[in-house]
Every structure is written in C-alpha cells, then in structure tokens.
Amino acid sequence: LQKRFFLLIAYFALLLTCAVRGRVFRVSYIGCFVDESDRDLNGLTGIDRIGAKAVDNKRTEKSDMTVEFCGGFCSLGGFPYFGVQDKKECFCGRSYGRFGISDEADCKLPCSGNSSQVCGGRWRNSVFALTYPKLRCFKQSPMPSLTVSSTLPTSWSLAAQTALDCLIPCEASADCQAVIFSGQQRLCHLLRFAYPPASLSSTDGDFFLRG
C-alpha cells in the first residue's frame, strides 16, 4: 500500500499542468557559426517530414522564416540548439560549432518573415540555445493528427502496466518527447518527437506530451 501511495505521488508529479498550450521553451542567442555541406547542426538527419513541414538536407525552409518558428519547430524534437541561415533555413542539433565560430558581421541577413530579426548568412548559422523549464511536466492530450516521416526509427517500445511505466523512462531520457500508453496491449511507445511516426498514428492509447 505504501509503495502504491508513492507511485501515485510520482505519477501526479509528472502530470503537472502545463502553463501554456504546446511545449514550453526559452530561446537565447549564442553566436554566428560556420556551416559546411555535411551540416554543423545535423539533428534532422534521416528525417523527411515533421508534421506539415518537409525536411531536406537536414533542414526545413520557410518563405516567412522567423526565430520563433525555428525554435518551435526544433522544440518538437527536444533539441537544445537551433540555427537559422540564409534568411529562410532552419536547422536543429544537439551540438554546434564543429566548423568554428564566425564574425558576427557574417550573420546579418534579415529573416524572411521578420526583418527585425537576423537569420544568419550564406553558409553561416545564427545559433540559439533552447531550454525547457517544464521537462518534468507531461500533459495528456488527444493523439496528434500530424506525424513524423523518417528513414530512421523515431520511437521505441517498452512493456508497461500503467502510464507511469511510460512517463518515468521518458522523463529520464533526453531523446523522449512524448509517449503513447496502450493499456490494452500493456505497452508504451516512447517518441523522439512530439508527433508519432505514421505507423503509430492509429494506435489506441493515451498520448502524453512532455514539457
């Protein structure tokens, strides 16, 4: 009985109500960095599409790009860094700077969607850090209609008796952004992105978004 009580306490601690709709994150500027053809910020390797946005050559493009859009897009994968380049390109990554820092004057192109913001330069990323102050927060919500298309796996599965058996390992993994718990199958799917892969989009279960 005592063990069950502490499990319930842990469960409700992980189900803190999020303050706003969607993932909570903060953005801070780091600097201007060199990019090359194999990409400095390469977190989208193997990804073809996230929701409605196509990914090509490890980036997504937007005709009206803003810093906020790129930060929100990369937050879907829990990435700690993102970069904007050449007015309209967005990159996500778990590290940056392997090709070296560049002069700030090289990152002076205005963002195509907000001329008061800077979106890098030619082969130069304006790099920002993303922090997630509510990583211990999980919000139960309807299964997203949007999915992730990828040549690499974007989920992994574990045996589970309760939703807590999903939330605890997700909370402990930097790669986990959401979970699907199927009580009928006694299985949980841990997701690398806030959207499920297409193969899991019709899964009957409870969906929990992290942070």
UniProtKB/TrEMBL annotation:
It comes from the Eukaryota. It is found in: Membrane. Residues 1-22 form the signal peptide. Keywords: Glycoprotein, Membrane, Signal, Transmembrane, Transmembrane helix. Residues 26-131 form the WSC domain. GO terms for cellular component: plasma membrane. It is a single-pass membrane protein. InterPro entries: Kremen_rcpt (IPR051836), WSC_carb-bd (IPR002889). This is WSC domain-containing protein. The lineage of its organism: Eukaryota, Metazoa, Spiralia, Lophotrochozoa, Platyhelminthes.
